[in-house]
Amino acid sequence: MHLEQAAAFDAETKIAEAPGDHKAELRLWLRLLATNTLIEAEIRRRLRERFEVTLPRFDLMAQLERKPHGMTLGELSQRMMVTNGNVTGLVDRLVAEEAIVRKQHKSDRRSHIVSLTEKGRRQFARMAKEHEDWIAAMLGDLSQNDLAALTRLLGKLKASVRSATSPA
Amino acid sequence: MHLEQAAAFDAETKIAEAPGDHKAELRLWLRLLATNTLIEAEIRRRLRERFEVTLPRFDLMAQLERKPHGMTLGELSQRMMVTNGNVTGLVDRLVAEEAIVRKQHKSDRRSHIVSLTEKGRRQFARMAKEHEDWIAAMLGDLSQNDLAALTRLLGKLKASVRSATSPA
DNA sequence: GAGGAATAGTTTAGACTTAAAGTAATTTCC
DNA sequence: GGAAATTACTTTAAGTCTAAACTATTCCTC
Asked: pTM for this one?
């Protein structure tokens, strides 16, 4: 490469990467957001049509399903990444539907343990099965390699976001 | 490889890929969702703290910023991937804040065109600048290669979801 | 050109969500 | 052991969001 060409190339690079320009990052974020919205909307729609249940309720039940002994509202709130107040309302509605129960914590009287009822467990099992198939169908055009690569890269992205947001 | 070993390997594969098992896909979806939630929560928080604005309002203004001549509520609704009713409410609030204006469509009296006001444009410019930096910082641990690979794979995923949800 | 279908947007009822303030119980620390 | 801080959860006010029903207008078709 001649020096003139090298200089020209550098100038272009400079322009493309001008300070404060982060178009590629923005583009990635917008694509991630759009993809997420697309999948989420479809799942919401199907959960409602097939089971008359909302995604937040499904999500809450999914958390409880993994912990047969139940968990506190605070733990739910953390795992679901929503506020405590939000969980309080969701739990109220799911208790009213008899999908879960709320019990006093044995030793800490501020705390409550919620867990799936037998009815809730049956209901969730039916939903989870179809839900998994929906996801698989939506991801159907990805090869096993794509799946693995995407999962890995999202892990890296998630770690990057965490390190940038929760100060070391 | 001996025949016995080959048989054993196949049996394991069979178990790992039992019909109806889509753990890898589910895992990818949960990771995508978690990553999205993480980024979104942080952006919401910063938009509120720095500019006292919500993410939906920012999003709506971002759409309008790209179309100086404005667009209809229906177009906004499509681009933002939310319902018409939702847009109606958002537009009402942004009009009240004088960030946007709503005008009668020239020829179609059912339709309205909304566009940024000068105030809205200034406000958005300030926000967009910081917003881009926040994103860049959150994605900071990704190499240029990672960025490109992730963007490409998300594009593929998005296409897969679309083809699985909107019947050909 | 009139009737019916389609389109653009609004309204409504209800669920979800948050931040902030509030209550009650527990832990900490002197 | 008692005041102060923290923790667990609830409540409140306001915004966001959806599906479904509704209004007004335009398009289509005969």
From this structure: 0.85
